[in-house]
Write a sequence for this structure.
């Protein structure tokens, strides 16, 4: 998971999809790729619904695994190291991601930074997920997966909410986080519009006053 353009795949992912299973150190590994948040063609709400559907609908492989007691060994959150001073969009995406996983599952999360060639260095502090560096090589990717497959598999919070508690997507922690951010953006834009109206009114008043003084 991660923002669009963070390097999760070499091409843009438009749907949630499972890759072909493969063997790593005698373990069978199945990777699931998701579209990135902050997509230019779809809203974050649509992306969250796609991920939720994949994790909760019984016709989908991930939900069948969950129903049969199979849990995720880990979640990879891709983040460009050049964006590490998280702006509003990155904070929103990561906040929604944390709610999707749930606090108890964060220990199975790795925050993977890539595109290191774009910056010289970056300070990192993360108290929950493990921070790993991806060098865009096969060996680097395998090292990250080796860390994950050693974890005790756990369910994501959104799986509990959607499957076990039959919540609507808007009632989940991730959905609520997204709604809070959208409401914050609405209030911000409303205030900006109000400030602009005040500025325009003041400018018009000043113009009229100058014209009257010139008479």
């Amino acid at each position: 998971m991660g923002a669009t353009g963070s390097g999760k795949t070499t091409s843009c992912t438009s749907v949630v999809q499972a890759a072909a299973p493969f063997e790593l150190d005698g373990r069978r590994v199945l990777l699931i790729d998701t579209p990135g948040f902050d997509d230019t063609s779809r809203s974050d709400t649509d992306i969250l619904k796609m991920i939720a559907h994949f994790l909760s609908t019984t016709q989908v492989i991930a939900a069948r695994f969950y129903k049969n007691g199979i849990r995720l060994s880990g979640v990879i959150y891709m983040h460009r190291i050049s964006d590490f001073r998280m702006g509003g969009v990155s904070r929103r995406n990561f906040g929604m991601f944390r709610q999707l996983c749930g606090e108890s599952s964060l220990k199975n999360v790795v925050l993977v930074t890539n595109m290191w060639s774009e910056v010289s260095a970056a300070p990192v502090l993360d108290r929950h997920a493990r921070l790993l560096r991806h060098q865009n090589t096969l060996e680097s990717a395998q090292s990250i997966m080796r860390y994950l497959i050693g974890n005790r598999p756990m369910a994501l919070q959104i799986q509990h909410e959607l499957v076990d508690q039959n919540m609507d997507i808007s009632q989940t922690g991730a959905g609520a986080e997204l709604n809070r951010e959208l409401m914050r953006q609405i209030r911000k834009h409303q205030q900006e519009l109000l400030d602009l109206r005040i500025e325009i009114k003041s400018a018009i008043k000043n113009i009229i006053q100058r014209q009257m003084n010139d008479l």
Remarks:
- The chain has one domain: 17-173.
